[in-house]
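call fold(seq) -> tokens
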Amino acid sequence: MSTLLIVDNNEFTRKHITEPLRNVGYTIIEAATGKTGLNLLHNNLVDLMIIEIFMPEMDGIEVIRKVAGNYKKCKLIAISGHNNTPIHNRILSSTKLLGANAVIITPFSSDDIIYNVKYLLRVDHYKSQ
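ret:
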């Protein structure tokens, strides 16, 4: 099964994302910072990354730019758990222009995460055949 990298500075959110994905069989790697996430991506074969946009030090937007430019086969899902204002939603939506394949705005369910991961990995599988 595929390997997923979850990058979020909030441990509760990481757990909310990782547990259901592990339960359906994905291999999970976790990072609490964008910099650590990039290092893990560099050293592991990762099929898909779920990245929080608003993090201290290196934010998700910077990570998405680097991943989209250097790791073309890695699918990206941008998420955010801060607030649900129009400006916040526009920033999150703009991540698609930078290379994110999907955007999930909180609150989200486990089913939302699982569906998006399965969809993106399935689409990639069919493109490679």
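Helices lie at 11-23, 34-43, 60-70, 86-98, 110-127.
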